Amino acid sequence: TVKPTDNIETDLAFDSLDKVALQGFLEQTFGIKLSVERISSFADINEMAKYINERKTRVQVNNIDWKELLSMPSSSQELPRMAYSGNIIVRVFYYLSVLMFRLKVKGQENIPANGPYILAPNHQSFLDAPLVMSKVSWKVMRHTYFYAKKDHIRSGIARFFARNHNIVIMDMSTLKDSILALSMVLKQGRNIVIFPEGTRCRKGKVGQFKKTFAILSSELNVPVVPVCIKGAYDALPRGKWFPRFTKIEVEYLPPVFPQEQQSYEDLANEVREKIVQSLSEWD
Prior knowledge:
By secondary structure, the chain is an alpha/beta fold. It contains twelve helices and seven strands. It has a seven-stranded mixed beta sheet. The two termini are 32 Å apart. 32% of the residues are buried. The model has no long low-confidence stretch (mean pLDDT 86).
């Protein structure tokens, strides 16, 4: 339940894509153009509502037609390529994690032999991205992409790393551009990692899943592989910079295929429930 006193970041856990989606909705519905930064600056929903009420030029509710949006021709932009150094970095990370966290990875047989597909992990710590890749084959690694906000890739070193390690840089300026940038990867037969919670969990609990990945899965007809990360929160919780040497496990669960007439929310919840169930079975 959304309350007037909720902050979109601390209480509602809006990630960058959510803010861009809200930005598009406000412009379509109320005729107000707000930057993502301005949206983030409101203390709570009540303050934002007052601001919109005072400045709106219309009230016209239009639902976004995701099918039409994703059927539009996408950019033929060349995707970055994974340098072999990425394979070395990830393998070193894996063996260090085996020593430090007694890391176990299972369920690799559930990863489809060919793409495209979406890897959807729960988000427990800063360790999650390399954990997801820690024991996949070089073929899977080369064909799997992460995304990063342009504002976070400012230095030359960061841009060089992104170009050579399968990171798609997104400017997040509009909802259309953001979604099309993600779909571009899938339309080229590659895979993408999306953390559906949008941010690291609090107190180790699985948060609500945003529906971005479900929209892409449903409209592009690609499967979702739930990835259950267990123990990473205990190893490196929010606010901590030095890990604790505790057990971590990563499990790839059987793919979930989008069904006809299934809503985005139902697909997102189905993937979430499979991860929650797997977490409940972990000792």
